[in-house]
Amino acid sequence: MEENQKNGNEKDVKNMKQDEKLGTAHLGKLIAEMALPAVAAQIINVLYNIVDRIYIGHIHGYGDMALTGVGVTFPILMVISAFSAFAGMGGAPLASIQLGKKNYKEAEKILGNSVGLLLIFSVLLTVLFSVFKTPVLYAFGASDQTIIYAREYISIYLLGTVFVQFAVGLNTYISGQGNARTAMMSVLIGAVTNIILDPVLIFVFGMGVRGAALATIISQAISAAWVIRFLTSKKSVIRIRRKYIRLNAKTVGSIAALGVSPFIMQSTESLVMITLNSGLQKYGGDLYVGTMSIMSSIMQLIVVPVQGVSQGVQPIMSYNYGAGKLDRVKGAFIRMVSVCLAATVILAGIAIARPEIYARVFTGNKELISLTCSVMPVYFLGITIFGIQMACQSTFLALGQAKVSLVIALLRKVILLIPLAITLPKFMGVMGIYRAEPIADFTSVAVTVILFIITAKKILRKDEKDDMIGEA
User: Fold this and answer.
1) Is the separation of the CB atoms in 311 and 348 below 8 Å?
2) Which of 98, 105, 149, 341 has the fewest beta carbons under 10 Å from its own?
3) Membrane-spanning residues where (predicted)?
4) Domain count across the chain
5) Residue 196, CA distances (Å) to 205, 225, 310 in order
6) Which residues are CB-neighbours of 237 under 8 A, at least 6 positions away?
7) Residue 277 domain-assigned (yes or no)
8) Is residue 21 part of a domain?
């Protein structure tokens, strides 16, 4: 407590114990306590989009076209989410490292600057996409038949950009201080609201696609309110303070150095979807774009639990790295990579073996179901081992390794997948687009493993720890 007073922070005993358990609790139990709520939160969070698509796909008379149109908006949603990751996932690991050092003042500076960044991002994204939404949607793969649904959905969704930024970007600061259950609740509240509002607004009030979008932003607003309330209360180890919201160049630089990696990971997902949808529209048509709308949702269901595990373990590694407890860092990594790999093998394996289980959930169109089932086993093949890369990527972020994390983020999507998706259809037709995914996945996992083995000893060497943090 004396050290806290030197930093000028007032922390109660309960909150002190909340963050300190990251460095003292039994590692296996701690990982379960942190990871399970994070997994639940990630699964719940993905329901925002998936529940929308399920209901939209079953709108009588035009559900298949509406589903395809909403799928075209997915890249915009990913860009918005990427900016929240820039501030949240870029800052939260740094704040956790500072908590491990007992430097609460610096942790609150990082949190405050993240709030400032999210406010700026919200204004810019809302204005830009609102003005240019029509040409952007056409560029993302919309056709004259689907543009009306895409435009209806995104026009309303953009009004809630600030809610998405705060709900997603700041929630990482709750889990980063050891409050995984509270972080889960912020997502759960919004998801339950969304699930209730969707059928009411879509079918009862006859709002269709617009109802789905409105339900989503109302739900995100409630989640954002929950997050802000917690981070300004005495229950939070670190709090949002007005004096730290004003941007500081050094602090923003540190956030940006680490945040650029998750930003690229998510924003390039948008670029990937643009490339895939455009190619599918060119070589196949609306029906093929519809398969991607379904498979991108299924991909989320597979990847999201793994993201939950990695995000749950990440604060543990960051805190113990800051505290110099490297054996706990290594133990956490071994457990994380084992769970992540097992999850992708099982979940992707089910999609490959029984694709019809997933396809029928999203649409009743027999032709779309048949086409989706034929291409899904090819598309998801490489995802079976993708848990390895996600675990390694999360570890680099947790330890503040901005440069290595950036290389991995660029590798799979920008260096491999996008060029393959553009090139292969010229030789294989539309199936080349689906085959680009597994080729990129297997290659990027292999490179990531090699890179991790080469650098792991250096990263975790105690006498180089301070230098490594400085590099980030």
Assistant:
1) no
2) 105
3) 30-51, 71-94, 115-141, 153-174, 186-206, 212-231, 252-276, 288-310, 331-353, 368-392, 404-422, 442-460
4) 1
5) 13, 18, 29
6) 11, 15, 16, 18, 19, 99, 104, 107, 177, 178
7) yes
8) no
The backbone region for 208, taken as left when phi is positive above 0, alpha when psi lies in -120 to 50, beta otherwise, is: left
Other beta carbons within 10 Å of 283: 16
Q: Which residues contact 381 (CB under 8 A, 6 or more apart)?
A: 348, 352, 437, 438, 441
Q: Which residue in 224, 214, 63 sits closest to 149, CA to CA? A: 63
Task: Name which of 76, 51, 41 is nearest 226 in CA terms.
Answer: 41
Distance CA(184)–CA(40), nearest Å, equals: 7
422 within some domain:
yes
Asked if residues 316 and 328 have their Cβ atoms less than 8 Å apart, the reply is: yes
Residue 221, amino acid: A
Neighbours of 342 (CB within 10 A): 13
316 to each of 20, 24, 35, 183, 332, how far by Cα in Å? 10, 10, 10, 15, 7
Angle at alpha carbon of residue 46, lines to 81 and 385, rounded to 5°:
95
Q: Give residue 19's pLDDT.
A: 58
pLDDT tens profile 83-141: 998 999 889 889 988 888 889 999 999 999 999 999 999 999 999 999 999 999 988 77
With respect to residue 11, please indicate whether it lies within any of the assigned structural domains.
no
Cα–Cα distance between 357 and 471 in angstroms, integer? 47
Range of the domain at 382: 27-471
DSSP string, 79-142: HHHHHHHHHHHHHHHHHHHHHHTT-HHHHHHHHHHHHHHHHHHHHHHHHHHHHHHHHHHHHTT-
pTM of the entire predicted model:
0.72
* Cβ atoms 178, 22 nearer than 8 A: yes
Q: Is 27 helix (H, G, I), strand (E, B) or coil?
A: helix
What's the DSSP call for residue 5?
Answer: H
pLDDT of res. 291: 87
Please report the pLDDT score of residue 468 as a whole number: 43
**The residue to which tokens 């990527």 are assigned:** 393
What pLDDT does residue 135 have? 93
Could you say which residues of the chain have pLDDT below 50?
1-16, 462-472
Tokens of 183: 């972080």
Rounded CA-CA distance 345/265 in Å is 21
Give me the pLDDT at residue 460, please. 57
The closest of 311, 328, 276, 277 to 437, measured between CA atoms, is: 276
Phi, psi of 248 (to 5 degrees): -115, 130
Q: Which residues contact 115 (CB under 8 A, 6 or more apart)?
A: 170, 240, 244, 245
